[in-house]
Design a protein that fits this description.
4-stranded mixed sheet; 19% strand; globular; membrane; LytR_CpsA_psr; LytR family transcriptional attenuator; transmembrane helix
Length: 462
């Protein structure tokens, strides 16, 4: 996306949404208390493998991490305090088998969708003014859409960001009340929650992403603004490198960060993850890039020596997560444990964050459409289990390679010596991507991103 993108929220082009965006989601605002951790002797300590965060969807995969780290007994108790689940049936793409192979710690692929809504409903006083409520309320728009794919031999994990402004032929959606929202010849991805309504929105998003990627989606979760604040507080923040100052008055709270290494926590972390005007070229694709920078930094923190190895702390993180995030009805404690075990041996270089291959919409510069060539490569790799590699010079729009000096600099909220200034590059350009392996399916430059081992900085480039 380029400067001049439509500001949030953006209305869909084409057919109108099926349900008013003001529908209240009572289930998503339910809360309850977690049961105390059982004391049946010391639980086995496992390596805390990984955690995933995408935009406002930080919370879910912390549950996965803790599931693989503190055991099934604690997970059962944690989920005793979870929100009511969302109605969900595994989303099967056209031509796919009617049943998926069992997901276990030792075999089978995992496809899990994490969606973040931009609803202001129930998000506290900061989002209670009339302008915020008019922008998005009720079910909201699926502002962030993240597909987590672990291949069948558990040697690679992909975290695929699907742009909110992506336009494509939208499938018919169950509305959660026994009816169906008709298919649309062209609509934006971020209309899924409205199309499915408060009961069927998550299912609608999964159906759409399944159509776009060609994979069956068995598990899903829905997060809100407040979730990222809760989880970033619980983890103690994430240190992110900024190559340029970041200023954005269009997020809540307003963002004013100096260049250097900055520890992002709480509402400030949420504002950074939502910022579009402050990073890259000022659009949604640039925001995806800064979120990839944040995710990679968090991965490195999670797997670094001495980080999150305390089962009690992991239990606390998981408790916070499941009390906030709404899980699909297909997610249970056993599934969480097996997913945690499935990613146990994946190294940082094989945790790849990428944007769904896309091109500017020739009919509307504020929208993007699927790149047919890139999508064909990605779909084939997802379905065959082939490793996926980004092409050289494919860092996201907001990313620049972090200098060795900046990598060792401490995080601070005070003025810091900035990394080397980035050179201005065209959309999708970057550096620092590893040379793809000969056995990998190499995506074109329309799919931008990085792996978790790449240390990058966020920068404003316009």
């Amino acid at each position: 996306m380029h400067p001049g993108e439509a500001s949030e929220p953006s209305a869909p082009r084409g057919e109108a949404s099926a349900e008013a965006n003001s529908t209240a989601n009572a289930e998503a605002n339910a809360t309850s208390n977690a049961t105390p951790l059982a004391r049946h002797g010391r639980l086995p300590r496992r390596h805390p493998v990984v955690s995933l965060i995408k935009g406002l969807a930080i919370a879910l995969v912390v549950v996965v991490v803790s599931a693989g780290s503190i055991g099934a007994i604690a997970t059962w108790q944690i989920l005793g305090g979870a929100k009511p689940t969302a109605q969900f049936t595994a989303a099967v793409p056209s031509g796919a088998a009617s049943t998926a192979p069992a997901v276990s710690a030792y075999s089978g692929e995992v496809n899990m969708l994490v969606v973040a809504t931009d609803t202001r409903t129930g998000q506290g006083a900061a989002f209670s003014d009339p302008a915020d409520q008019r922008a998005s309320s009720g079910a909201g728009q699926n502002d962030t859409n993240l597909l987590v794919h672990i291949n069948a031999d558990h040697s690679q994990m992909l975290v695929i960001s699907l742009p909110r402004d992506l336009e494509f032929p939208f499938p018919a959606c169950p509305n959660g009340s026994g009816g169906t929202t008709p298919a649309s010849s062209q609509a934006m991805l971020n209309t899924a929650l409205v199309r499915g309504g408060t009961k069927g929105g998550l299912q609608c998003a999964a159906d759409a992403v399944s159509q776009l990627t060609g994979v069956r989606i068995d598990y899903a979760a829905l997060a809100t603004f407040s979730d990222v604040v809760s989880m970033s507080n619980a983890i103690g923040g994430v240190t992110v490198c900024l190559a340029t100052p970041i200023d954005d008055d269009n997020v809540t709270p307003a963002l004013h960060l100096k260049a250097g290494n900055v520890n992002l926590v709480g509402a400030q972390a949420g504002a950074f993850l939502r910022s579009r005007e402050g990073v890259g070229y000022g659009g949604d694709t640039s925001r995806i890039s800064s979120q990839q920078i944040f995710m990679s930094a968090m991965m490195r923190k999670i797997v670094s020596a001495g980080t999150l190895t305390n089962p009690v702390k992991l239990y606390g993180l998981a408790s916070t997560a499941v009390r906030s995030v709404q899980l699909s009805s297909t997610l249970d404690p056993k599934t969480l444990v097996t997913i945690g075990l499935a990613i146990k041996g994946i190294g940082l270089s094989n945790m790849v964050f990428l944007a769904y291959p896309n091109l500017p919409d020739p009919a509307d510069s504020n929208r993007v459409i699927p790149d047919p060539a890139g999508v064909a490569i990605l779909r084939s790799a997802l379905q065959s289990g082939t490793h996926v590699a980004l092409s050289p010079n494919s860092l996201g729009q907001a990313a620049v390679t972090q200098s060795p000096a900046a990598q060792g600099a401490p995080a601070t909220s005070a003025p810091a010596t900035p990394p080397a200034a980035p050179a201005t590059k065209p959309s999708g350009a970057g550096s620092g991507a590893p040379t793809p392996q000969s056995t990998s399916a190499v995506l074109p430059g329309t799919a931008t991103g990085q792996n978790a081992s790449q240390q990058t900085c966020a920068a404003k480039k316009y």
